[in-house]
């Protein structure tokens, strides 16, 4: 015990503790407390002053253009047939048939514009139903069938097949984007969006990543200052870190509010959301009546595109290399 007190481990711990306490109670650190509180309050006020306008702008700028009236062939869940659904289709109507002759990937773009993985998964399931590709489960492995009839498939699906089959594509960095560019160009050509869905959210994502990066760096400095005993100096740094993290959340929220659908696309998306409700209920009924039979493959692609499938789109999307 005497040896430990003379030169062992315990005295070094006690000395470290005494050193931190001495710094924490030093005149320089304690005298900085009023300034630290003022800076922290100022940073929090700046956070409110900046974040609220950004959030309000995101809500207004990312709002779909309103359709003039409720699309035809709908059974509204609200009081009257002319009532509009809310901005992001949460109170969607019921639709008992597909509203237009659309491919599954086009439905996915209309319904979930910010989820290209869902469009890829829906296209692959549609190709499987057509007998063009084979998908092995549970680990999703996609194989292109030689000699399969490829008539009637979309350009987006043709590009996916090229990526899967290594075809004529020679630039690996363009694999996924090369296919998606056709999908989004088609959506813009049909007048569905005011901005390309794959470009509209890049700005908010970049700002969110920058805020997270600077917030992490500031957090490291904050922890270092506190561990050295300068707790009053760490207070405004911690407030600044919280401010940056909050801004990152605001920009992430802004990213989710984009892109903006045109009135025509909003009407179609509303109908697709309503049909998704019916298809989701039908799928559950099918599984109860036919527990040992798979859901019809053609409807499996539509269910994936409308977000009512029991499968996640991620494993299918990962089959297409970035």
Textual characterization of the structure:
- Keywords: Membrane, Transmembrane, Transmembrane helix.
- The chain crosses the membrane at residues 32-56, 206-227, 233-254.
- InterPro entries: YciQ-like_C (IPR048389).
- Residues 95-279 form the Predicted membrane protein YciQ-like C-terminal domain.
- The protein has 322 residues and is mainly α.
- Helices cover 62% and strands 2% of the residues.
- The protein contains 14 helices and 2 strands.
- It has helices at residues 2-7, 9-24, 27-31, 33-61, 104-111, 116-129, 155-164, 175-189, 197-200, 202-227, 231-256, 263-289, 297-305, 314-317, and strands spanning 133-136, 141-144.
- Strands 1-2 form a two-stranded antiparallel sheet.
- Strand 1 and strand 2 (141-144) form a beta hairpin.
